[in-house]
Structures are given as structure tokens and as C-alpha cells.
Amino acid sequence: MKKKIRITLNGNVVSPEVPAHRLLLDLLRDEIGLTGTKEGCGTGDCGACTVLLDGKPVNSCLVLSGELDGADIVTIEGLQIGRELHPIQQAFIQDGGAQCGYCTPGMLMMSKALLDENPNPTEEEIRFALAGNLCRCTGYAKIVKAVQDAAMELRTRHTARQ
Amino acid sequence: MAELTIVGKPITRVDAQEKVTGEAVYGYDLVLPDMLYGKTVFSTRPHAKIKRIDTGKAREFPGVVAVITGKDAPWTHGESIKDKPFLAHDKVRYIGEPVAAVAAEDEDTAQAAAALIEVEYEDLPAYLSPEEACKPGALPIHEDFAGYRKSDFIVTAPLPNVCEHFKLRTGDVERGFRESDLVLEERYTLPTIQHAAMEPHSAHAQVDPASGRVTIWVANDAPFRALHEIAEALGLPLEKIRLINPLQGGGFGSKGGLKVEPIASALAYHTGGRPVRVKFNRQETFISTLTRHEAILYIKSGVKKSGSLCARQMTIYWGAGAYAEKSPTVCIRGSLPAPGPYRIPHVKVDGYAVYTNKPVSGAFRGYGIPQGAWACEQHMDELAKRLGMDPLELRLKNVFVDGDLAYWGEKLHSVGLKETLIKAAEAIEWGKDDISKSKIRSPNLKRGKGLACISKPTRTPTLSKAAVLIDASGGVTVLAGTVEIGQGCSTILSQVAAEELKVPLEKVRMAPLDTDVIPFDASTTSSRSTYHMGNAVRLAAIDVREKLAEMASPMLEAGKDDLSFADGKIHLKEQPQMALPIGEVVRRRLGASGFLRGDSSYTFEIGKDLDLETGHSEHASAFYMYATQAAEAEVDEETGRVRLLRMSAAHDVGKAINPLNCEGQIEGGLAMGIGSALHEHLVVDETGKVRNPSFLDYHLATSLDLPKMIPIIVECPEPEGPYGAKGLGEPGLAPTPAAIGNAVANALGIRIYDLPLSPERVYWAIRRMKKKVA
Questions:
Q1: DSSP single-letter state for residue A27
Q2: Do the bridges between strand A17-19 and strand A2-4 make them parallel or antiparallel, or are there none, so unpaired?
Q3: Is B639 helix (H, G, I), strand (E, B) or coil?
Q4: How far is CA B237 from CA B345, B469, B637, in A?
Q5: How confident is the model over B452-508, as pLDDT tens digits?
Q6: With 60 as the cut, is the pLDDT of residue B1 above it?
């Protein structure tokens, strides 16, 4: 049975009509055509499909569309600040945080969620936050470094604004 | 050589931007107009005759366009042995073998219809261990093996289910053992593991009804090999097949050969010309694509009191799984250097690739080297212990150095192995155990250090072609068949083109990979690309540069040899201000839409093929990669848990074209190696079923599982390589488990012969030892 839902997606209000059992991941990828959110397992074990739901990171393969009416969703396509890359994206480029890149969107969204909540995380806190996001290419070292660098850049910007 | 401007610099990846914004389109993301959705039905039996397949209900299901079985796809394929059907014919050989497929208007319909297909089986005895499957009297898994089409290099054995027998014969091992002061024999094993690339497998296919042309969109790491294999199987000329390569979300060996391609292309013959997409989910990827060979290794060595190795004999059983895939070449190239990178006068190796009723094994990053190293490098430590020698010292005494004649008959050069040993050991303060041990927090915790080294050949001889285009805007386009699988080839090859043409990197772009327009390349495997394709792109860039210089010569009123390139311009050597942008030269001569093209072809000329009786060759490999990794581990005697404190990895890369990228490859290799050492095991139960086909149960290393990693780049230049480069991708995980095994043995005084070093296995090893002592 199809259901019309009203969501805010990357800052824009959209009202897709979807079967209530359609996964948020499939809603994004197949119905809306935003394929930046990746499917790695479909069972909530790898984190590749991480998006922000009302500011919190979720595995979009575990969320049903029917539950989403009124939700605010941010995907990798909405991470940029205007035309500029988000400092986390910039840091992943600079530090070599992406190799094949398939886990990268999920990693970036999880990192954003972490830094929104904890602007100055320790290495251990970063590793803990990313433990549910699997990467088979990098060995995580350059990802952790990228999150540290992004955190510093964000703090610098924050201080500059004050 | 002129000074390098961009080669050797740690520049950021050229494909990073599209990857961090989510714009990158992978095979799994691809949507084609009017496409259908495929779903595969897999065997539920490890070994059985197919009595009957009932597709009636599926065919009648609303929204279904096609249902096919092996009868509709009477084709077989295989890299060196043509043994694998597109869909099972008459019998199945493992749980997870594709048996039937459905194409429907949407995913849900395809899935529902596939569930309605009924298959009736008559079970046959299943073989789940390679050692059992080749015992005299075992029943054949492939009754028609003798009749299969095979490559010339395949050597069979008078044993059941052996699809390749590799032999190495050097000197006289029996004499070597007699002349030794100490002889030691051991048995090591490794379980099946899986590549677990983050992007699962998928393929899209379309057959044009008018021309019969087959187009396949697939993230395959060897598109030209796939094209040949499909054409040969379908009996079509090469020009009737086209492969388009979207971006690949990791492969590590799993995405070469044919996996989903046969199912998608077989379905596409029944859809009236509409494209069809076949995706495997994670579970299907685990059971039905590819795995790494489980292996059983017997190793026997004779050594003098001085530590000089006299003789080494190895017998290796490689579990091929149900189909040969790349097992023959893994067996050959994994067994050949298995006795280790050492001077040994008497060597005998027998490698057997053996069919079993398990998921198919094939290429996996390292290509047989990790298995040999797990046995050989721990065995070296056991020898050192018995000789009362430091393991590093024993290795330094025996390892290959420049000018050595390797036991396979090749004179070695550019051997950076000793340097890797010394640097990797230094990085974890080898020999300074007291400092480290004094930091231990509890008496249950034991600390130890270990190291392991390897040499790795590359697939030889192989061909890479390339083209480099300069357009009227000064843009440079590289046409190269190397697949960007995450390893960074697009960045490396862009650097090579930019270096030779002296243009800024932003002016270089890699053409998308489409076999209709891209020149031939053998494969993106075997750490061959930087060397082979790097050479090809370099030569193509030089070719177009020469043409450009010739064209500019009258414009600048100077001889060709008086011209030089810098900053995207061609100028007079003596008067650099007399310059023309390279695009301007093209525009003046060929017009605004013109372009100039350079072409090249690179292959390493092999001295002599591997002798099938002795395994000898004057040139078994275009180049060799050398590496040493060292680990410091802390083991909890109460729980058996191994915690890594730090790991160093020193890799001889010849020349680091991009040090940032090299570090990434080393760290990634280490992580994969650590996963295979401590966690990974694709568990096949006694019924032939994979018990853990998910990321919840198949434990990849997470960000919390990894220690401080110390990547070390060693540069011992290879004269034939571009700027001296060798390769790097594959060795990263090869010595890792053995280095960790040696650290654990050093900590506990107990040798563990089987992987993974899970807490349970380590715990029981400790218990058994304590019982023995008591």
C-alpha cells in the first residue's frame, strides 16, 4: 500500500508517494535517484548507507519509509555547504581518506554526526564512532586523521565567527 | 633523467572529489532506461544431480518477463579450464551455485517469482576438504574433467579432483636433508576467507536483437579478459561484445573473471532487447562469487648449525572449490615462491589445486603468497628457536640479495628485501623487549614481537596498450584499460602523463573505460598496473610529445631537438620565453576540434616460459616486490585475546610515484592482513553451507581493531619500471598473519599452526600447553 509522506531532504521539502515498507535506502536510491548513499549489506552491519535522520546517524537500510512523515533527512548530496565542500569532505580528499570510495559517503555522514555532537573528539572517540562503518581499503588510519583535521578546521571556523 | 615535477609527489587523488560528494557512479548504482530486474536462484545442495526444475509458477507470475535455467544457457567458461556453466547443467557442485534466473519489471516481482522455482535434487557425496578430495578412491566432482578445454600450461596429476599440479625441482632435497644439522617438519593451515569488497557484485546486460551485439556494464577488473571469455563461451566474434566499466567499489581479486556477467547476459537473450540488471546482495556475494583458497601446507626444512638453509620441501593443497576459476595460476604462482625469499640449494615443491564442493576460490589480493608465507615464515621462526638464533638474524643470513640465483632459476636484481627487514624491525624496536615488557599491566598479559618477509612475482608476460591525446585547449586525455578499483591508478597514470608532457595535473583526464574505444590491457591484477600501464602511458605520452614537437618546430622556427616542454607549453631550450601552449600548436595545425594522438604498447619480454617439470624459468616475473612486516602483540592468557600494539610494514616499491597513495595501500593491506590473522574465516559447515555470510558474523577489521600502523616505503629501483617503479597493491597483506603468528608465539612460547588466531583458538592452545606442562 502506498503512502504519501512529507519529508525535508537536504533542505528541500519533498512529498513522495511510496509503499510504507520501502526502505529509506531504496526510497533515496531507486525512487528519488540519489545514489550517493551506498548499499553495502542491506542488514545494518556495514554503515555504507548512513544518513542523518533528524540530525542523528542511522543505517538507512533499517528505516521504513512509512515512519518518515515529517522527518528531516540529510544525505551525502546535502553535506556540501552551498557550493563549498564541507570541511570533512575536504579533509578526506586532503588526507587520502577515500580509496574505492564506496564506504566514503557513510563514513562522512557518521563523521559529521560525531563532530556535531563532539567538536573535539579524541582518536579513541573517533574510532569508536566509526566502528560501525566498515572500510575494506584504507585501514582507517587516514580516515581517522581526516576526521581529526576536519574537527580542527571546524573549531577554527567556529572561533573565528565568535 | 630530467628532474621530476609531479612523479614522486604525495598529491591527492584525482577521483577524490566525486567520491566525497556522492557523485561517483558505481556498478551497483547504475540505472538503464527501460531496464528489467534479475534475481538468481542458487543451489541448496553441495553436490547433487538436478532431477527436475519446475519454472511454471514463476513464468506465470505477473510482471515476469523471462525465466531461464541451464538449458537456456548451454555455455561454459573459465580462465584456464572451461568447466563452469553459466547456470548449472545437470548437476550442482556447491551451495550457492546459480541454477536459474528470473527477469521481471521490478525487484520485488523478480524476488517473489524466483522463490516459486522448484528444484529437485539427487544428492551425491560431497567433499569439503582438499586433502580428502584428492585421496585415491575419491569420486570425481567433475566427471568430464578430461574433456574440458584447458590452457597449455595445465598439468594434471593421477589423483582425483586435482585440476593443477605444480612441480618445482631444484637440486636434491634428500641429499640436502642428509647434509643438514637440523631437520624440522610441520603442517600449517589457513581457512577460506572472502574478499568482502564494500560494493557487492552486480552486472547489467543487453542484447541488441538486430545485430546480436551483447553489451555488459560491469565493474570487472579485467574487462578485456572478460570480453574474450564471454565471446569464446557464446561463440561470438570479439566485436560482438562490449564491456562498459562503471566505477568499482573494491574488488581485491573477486571482480575479475566472470561472476554475475554470465547470468545477466544469459537473461538478456530473453528480454526482447531490454537491458537487465542482476544484483547480488551481501549474502549472495559471500556464497556465490569468490573466496580465497583454504590451504594445507606441509613444510620440511634442513638447516646447518650456522643457520644456512640446506633444503626445503613443501606439499601444498589448495582448496579450489567447485570450479577451477584461477586456481591453476594461484597454485603455480603461489607454490613457486612458497619456500620463501631465501637462498636454498635443494628445493622441492608440489602444489595441488583440488576441487571441493565449496564456494569457488580464485584470485585474492596476494595471489597465493599469504598462504605460503603463513607456513614458511612461522617455520623460519621455529628453525631459529631450535638454532638459538634471533629470527631476524636467521633471515638476514639467508635472504635473497642482488645477483642471487633464485631456486627457480632466475638471476635476481633490484632486491630491496634486506632493507625492508632492517627497517621494519627497527620501527618496532626489535630486540628491545625489556622496555616493552615492563609496561605490561597484568600478569595474564604476555607480550611478544615477530616479523615475516616475502617476495612476490607479478603475472608475466602481459600486455598493456595506451593512448594519450592532446586537444586544442591543451587538455590531455589518457586512454588506458587499467580499472580504478580504489588502488589509485587514475591518479598514478595521470601523474605519469602530466610528467612526460609537463602539463599541470588538472589538464589530464582519464577516459571512461569502454572496450569499444580503449586499447587492450591484460588486467588490473597482480600489482602489474603501475609497472605495465605506467610504462605504456609513459610511452604513449612520449609518442604524442614527439609528434607535437615536430608540429611546433616550424612554428617556433627551431629544430625539434632544440625544443623543450614546461608548464603546458613547448618552448625553445635556449630562450624559454619563445613558447607556445601545447593546445595552441594543435589548434593551429588541426583546428579547434583537432587533437593529436600518441599510442604505445608495453610488454615485458619473457626469457623463457616456466618449465612444467621443474618449475624453472629465467624470467618468472617482470619484477619482484619485497616486503617485511613486524608486529608487537599482547596476548591475554585468560581469554586468548590477541591485541596488537603496533605493526610496521616496509615495502620495496621501486619508486613511489605517489607516496600518499603508497601509504594508503600499505595501511589497507595491513588491515586486511590483520583481519585474516585474527578474525576472518568463512565457515563452511559439514553440510557444505556457509554459516556466516554477513558482516555481522564474518568479522572484518573495524576502526577499533587496528593498532598503530607504521608504513615504510623502501625504494630499490627497477630499471625497467617507469621511473624505477615496481608494484605494491598485493603484498600488503601477505606477510601480516605470519608476523602476528610469530609475535604470538614469541609472547606465549606456543606455536599456533592454524588461522585465524581467534581468542578461542589461542585460549585452547594455552590450555593444552598448560595441561602438558602440568
A1: I
A2: antiparallel
A3: coil
A4: 49, 29, 63
A5: 999 999 999 999 999 999 999 999 999 999 999 999 999 999 999 999 999 999 999
A6: no
Q: Hey, what's the cell of B170?
A: 631444484
Say how far apart CA B629 and CA B453 lie, in whole Å: 6
With beta carbons less than 8 A apart as the criterion, state whether B647 and B631 touch.
Answer: yes
Residue-wise pLDDT tens digits, B483-492: 999 999 999 9
d(C-alpha A109, C-alpha A87), whole Å: 12
Mutate: best of B21, B108, B282, B489, partner A, most A CBs <10 A: B21
Contacts for B305 with CB less than 8 Å, ≥ 6 apart? B181, B182, B387
Query: Domains in chain B, ordered, with CATH?
Result: 31-124+199-249+255-288 (3.90.1170.50), 295-399+411-459+610-773 (3.30.365.10), 462-603 (3.30.365.10)
B250, B487, B669 ranked by CB distance to A102: nearest = B250
The shortest CB-CB distance from B198 to any of A46, A93, A139 is to: A46
Give the confidence band of B774 by pLDDT, cuts at 50, 70, 90: confident
What is the β-pairing status of strands A50-53 and A17-19? unpaired
Residue B51 has pLDDT above 60, yes or no: yes
Task: Please state, in angstroms and rounded to a whole number, the distance separating the CA atoms of residues B480 and B514.
Answer: 10
* Range(s) of chain A covered by CATH 1.10.150.120: 87-161
Q: What is the pTM of this model?
A: 0.97
Mean pLDDT, chain B, integer = 97
**Angle between helical axes of B391-398 and B369-387 (0-180°, round to 10):** 110
CB-CB under 8 Å, B15 with A137? no
DSSP string, B220-288: -S-HHHHHHHHHHHHT--GGGEEEEE-B-S--TTTTSS-SSHHHHHHHHTTTTT--EEEE--HHHHHHH
Q: How many helices (H) and strands (E) does chain A have?
A: 5, 7
Cell (9 digits) for B102? 528470473
Note whether A76 contacts B: Cβ–Cβ < 8 A.
yes
- As a whole-number percent, the residues of chain B with pLDDT over 90 amount to 96
- Give the C-alpha separation, B272 to B107, whole Å: 19
Q: Name the minimum distance, in Å, from the CA of A23 to any CA of chain B.
A: 13
Q: Which of B430, B381, B29, B469 is nearest to B184 (CA)?
A: B381
Choices 3.10.20.30, 3.90.1150.10, 3.40.50.300, 1.20.140.10: CATH for A2-78: 3.10.20.30
Return residue ranges of chain A for CATH 3.10.20.30: 2-78
The residue type found at B116 is L
pLDDT reported for residue B2: 66
Superfamily of domain A87-161: [2Fe-2S]-binding domain (1.10.150.120)
| Single-letter code of the amino acid located at B757 | L
Q: Quick one: three-class SS letters along B162-189? A: EEEEEEEEECCHHHHHHCCCEEEEEEEE
- Taken as a whole, chain B contains a residue count of 774
Q: Helix (H, G, I), strand (E, B), or coil: what is residue B729?
A: coil
Q: Which of B8, B184, B1 is nearest to B655 (CA)?
A: B8
- In the 3-class helix/strand/coil scheme, how is B571-606 assigned residue by residue? EECCCCCCEEEHHHHHHHHHCCCCEEEEEEEEECCC
Residue with cell 553495502: A40
Nearest Cα neighbor of B619 from B405, B420, B465, B417 is B405
Specify the 3-state DSSP secondary structure of A38.
coil
Stretch 26-55 of chain A: residues touching chain B, C-beta under 8 Å: 29-30, 33-43, 45-46, 48
Q: Is B427 helix (H, G, I), strand (E, B) or coil?
A: helix
Compute the average pLDDT of residues A46-51: 98
